[in-house]
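Shipment paperwork, digital attachment
Item: protein structure file
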Amino acid sequence: MRARQPLIGYWIACDNPVGTERIASLGYDYIGVDGQHGVMHQPGWQAAMMAVDARGRSAGLIRVPSVDPVAIGTALDSGARGVVVPMVGDARDAAVAVAACRHWPTGTRSLSGPVRAELRMGSVPAELDAAAVCIVMIETAAALENLEAICATPGLDAVYIGPADLSVALGARCFGDPAVKADLEAALRRVTAAAEEAGIACGIHCLDGASAAERLGEGFTFATVSSDITHLQQAAADHLAAARA
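Attachment content:
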């Protein structure tokens, strides 16, 4: 991610380690676990990271609930290779997130000892810091207003678009509202340009693989494909329709 190589990920919303392990065997570059909006809370984060690591093919990321150093530290201690931090409004929020991902003297993260992070990434603070990425979300009007300053935050590895919240911030009644389509696309171009200028990665959540391919072609460096809960419902609906045909 720091080298801005193209990466493709998948999103996990269900608290189902068996299902997560299956998906982690497919070859996605990363598996993002939703600790904000999904049904998975902190007790499930470690099981999810163990499920991802069991296949040895993907890196596990956790979206934490907020810009909370305690939650960020817990996610990293669980063995996550990075955190996605939502609802960041300005460079100060971004700096708090970065500091929570780094040990002294550059950050505030506590050296935790014999937890999953040590098992996966060792116990040397500098090596732990190098092994984990800090990603903040651009999804609010405040984040757009402070975009360039956020991207320039020292130590930040990437920004990540939440298109649903960003659409609402731009005046949409709901995600997919055609009234803000042009404004959303303009905002996405601005975010990719700001990330490029700052030399950091830029990602986006997509509804399907074809959309992910398009976004990667537009300048995004990583893209997440849909989610387990969405695909579970879609597959069940398709099979029901076929059975009733």
